[in-house]
């Protein structure tokens, strides 16, 4: 069979020669190309002809085609490679190389081919941006400004996109927005570039915020489909939440419907908690929230609910968001009185502080709320007390006290609140003046402190010297007393005598005694004179001080008596007021007070008599009897008189020494 295939091959070769133009080069080429085929056939024939006829037919054809294909690839190596798209380091670098003019021409081509088709034109912009902006970005653009990447776009590019969106109309924009959401999820799942899709979604949401809340059911289904893929899920929430930065009402609706269901999930909690806080923080002061009272209460319950799965560092953002929503809600609604009455009736000790804050905002916004409080505080005593305590203790409540209608009402129910506020204002002004004085005094006190520190460092040394001298004098006196009162016989005297210093010490000692005695005599003669003069000069001041003390004491007694009379006057009123809520309480308190006072008086009298009897029978007997005590007193007087005369004799003797 192999020989027959060779013959057939040769005949085809000859036929080819007859058809082609004769030439040595061409014949040479054909022979060289066919030679390897014959060798392959011979080799295959030697192996036992294992291949069938079809395989043998394909072998020479494939061998003939291979050189041609290799020649084509070698001739055109660039045609076999696909162009690689450039990937940028960040979005800013990609936007620098983006040509808005090229984008305009690209859109003009689509406008010429697809007339009156705004969706096609928007898709052209979308595809161009996705191809031009190939960047790896985070799902929610962490560590970037809130309105990023729209804030980084060139003005001309934003104007071009805004013009096309405005020309498309609301219905087309809504349809295109929903398509972009779906393509965002699909392209992210396929790992395709989606930066252009993100930019288009953000610009649409900021231009038309209402599109973010038009299809919650469809968007929820789309989000649940990619719930386990956190990058896709966060990207969808990010796109839907962009409208909230332009319209706070839209942001709250998106948060309630799309983010609250996943707020306790690990990958979504941080973005969901920070989103509601940031949109409220960015909202202008004149923002109007269109919420019913029930929707507001449901929203507060959602925000104030305990959620242990949320990290501690962001958990407090939810209560802060509740306070901000309450403030915006009260400032934008008209039925403030109805809100106040409903919240006031349902108030309890378990109510969150945000409801008390809302009541305070109602009182500040609507004067009629004060009248409602005044009409209902007797019936709703517990609620009244809770609100009153909040106003007294909370920083939000203290801001109410400058309001005149509220001050008038508070003065009737609790005058101390108004007095404390007046005192607070006075103290604040006084504090400002004192702060200025303190600044000037600090400089002088610093110098005084330096001097006092030096003097205080000297004082311990002086005290130590006196203590040391006293200790030495005590030791010497004890030594003299042990040796019979003779200084020369004492150990100190012997030491001084051996050293030869005893005469000098005696001279110094007697000289000091002489001058001390003379000083004492001078003081005994002149001190009474100076004392009389000082007494004469200070007597008017002492009398004035006594009179002032008498006046102050009379004022204290008068104030005490006024307080007692006030208590006696108001006690029946207070008792009647208390009896309205707890009948018989005042009578029970009075009986208990009288019984307690009677018991204390009886015990005091009993203990007084017991003490007198104890001292009479147990203490003042024997050596402590009145007779012995009088004898001891007389003897003490005699000894004191003797010592005084002895002291005078010594003074006179030492005063005569020269």
TrEMBL record:
Region ranges (Disordered): 1-85, 425-451
Cellular compartment(s): Endoplasmic reticulum membrane
Biased composition (Basic and acidic residues): 39-71, 425-435
Alphabetically ordered keywords of this record: Apoptosis, Endoplasmic reticulum, Glycoprotein, Membrane, Transmembrane, Transmembrane helix
Cellular component GO terms held in the UniProt record: endoplasmic reticulum membrane; Golgi apparatus
Membrane topology: Multi-pass membrane protein
Single biological process term from Gene Ontology: apoptotic process
Function: Critical mediator, in cooperation with CASP4, of endoplasmic reticulum-stress induced apoptosis. Required or the activation of CASP4 following endoplasmic reticulum stress.
Oligomer and partners: Constitutively interacts with CASP4; required for the localization of procaspase 4 to the ER.
The family this protein is said to belong to: Belongs to the TMEM214 family.
Name of the featured protein: Uncharacterized protein
